[in-house]
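User: Hey, my collaborator sent me this sequence without any context and asked if I could get a structure. I don't really work with proteins. Can you help?
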Amino acid sequence: MTPRIDTTAMDALMVRLFDTIDERNMAWVMAADRALRDAFGAALIDLVPSYTTLLVHYDCQRLGHLEARARSLEALEGLAPADTQAGRLHEIPVWYDESVGPELPRVAKRAGLDVETLIARHCDHDYCVFALGFAPGYGFMGLVDEALATPRLETPRHKVAAGSVGIADRQTAIYPLLSPGGWNILGRTAVPLFEHARRGEPLLRPGDKVRFTAISRAEFEAEGGDTTPLEERP
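Assistant: No problem. I've predicted the 3D structure and written it out in structure-token form, which is a compact way to encode the shape of the chain:
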């Protein structure tokens, strides 16, 4: 790993550690996150880790560009991967059903599986949270089993219900609130991701892991889940 540092603004640097997405990258990304936070201290405004990069936003009234770059290089020197067990493991209960997951049959057919096996395969992995974005509390997770990977919808939906769980290529995610979206929806959870984010305490953070568990409609309703069907097509 040879880090590269690019200038993205007068008060921001982009630290690139890798060029491809891999779950094993996150041990290095999280180690770099901690090292950079320590190096910038009070001069750090924000630090955004992602799949292969970290965006460092610093106070340019405290640090000049050359010093910010020097601090970044020093922080990354001799970097060792972080303990991947340090992130939290979240078990997310999901009601997988065609009424709230219209793409269940499509994804299953593409993978050459029946729906029950598809659900079991989607639940049979602890997904790494790579990054947060798109909407408050929205975590991009992966990597999905290659057999389940499915391209996004050609035409996104205007409305995807809060709690919808979907797949796009080799990523999976949960929509935290009602919004447009083009992912293949498989089911729905009642976990209130947006409420956590609204309080400034996002449930999912980069480096965490997510394990989906299949539940019945009755269990979903008991958790306060909304059973309103999702439109079948955009």
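In plain terms: The chain has a mean pLDDT of 93. You can pass these tokens on to your collaborator as they are.
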